[in-house]
User: What shape does this take?
Amino acid sequence: MDDGSRYTRLGLFVVVSVAILAAGVFALGGRKWFQPTFTFETYFNQSIAGLELGAPVRFRGVPLGHVSEILTSAATYERDIPLERRRMYIVVRVEVNLSGREAAQMRQDAVILIRRGLRAQTQLAGVTGQQYLALDFLDAAKYPPLAFDWTPRYTYVPSAPSIAGEIIAKAQVFLASLNDADIKALGRNLNTLMSDLDTKIGSLPVAQLAAQAHEVLGDADHTLRKLAAAATTLDALASDPSLKNTLQNVAVISGRLRKAADDGGFDRTLKGIDEAAERLDVLLADNQNDVRGIVEDLRVTAANVRGLSESLKRYPAGALFGPPPARIELPGGVHGQ
Assistant: This one.
């Protein structure tokens, strides 16, 4: 094997190895190097302790990117400015992964969005307490952009102080506005309040309140016992076989009634009743005289029955066996039966 062939194979091996290595790097995350990105920066005039590199960036809760750099304006833009004139801002740069079209659209819309109140502020992520950067629309007049004298390297998005920072700042302003007279007056008011509370607590009828509480607890205990007895009765009633049979019978009857209603049995019955009523009306109209005679006969029969009843009351035997036999005249003027 000559040297030329050996060198050719060695070169081919090196090329193939480099290609395999590049493919592996690309598969393991190197593809991010070739994806278009959009970077913007914001400035803070307060501490952002807790915000770290790689912290998530969210727009109204939607993941958007991550914090790529945290710098100071003195080291980034104010190196040639005297120390007394430096702003001393905190510069936070954010990297957002977007397509080329989306990145161009965001650069184009950034000015309009900022004018509408797009602001960046640090927030805490739920229970973990991790700081992240949040983007949202706030009052542009209340949170104007910070003043600076340099040209930002990336698209600039104004910031807004965090809620915790605003609370601390307001507390500091309030404490700074207090003077010695206010503090003394506040102490006197607190002492008066504590004295009034002690007086009120000492004047409370503790024994009466305890008796009333005991009475209320006794009533509650009695009520609970009644409820327990009622629950026991209901359990016994529910376990009674007769109740179960009754419920089963009710269910059977209900099923039959539902079946009759579904089959049209109720409709047929009502229709038959209507037809019978119509026939009865026709029958009474055609035999009105006969019906009147029957009614008169019924009245006479009722009168006769009433007379017979009165006869039975006066002379029961005569009503049953007839009148007594007539007297017989015997010779010599002796009467006989």
Remarks:
- The first strand starts at residue 37 and ends at 44.
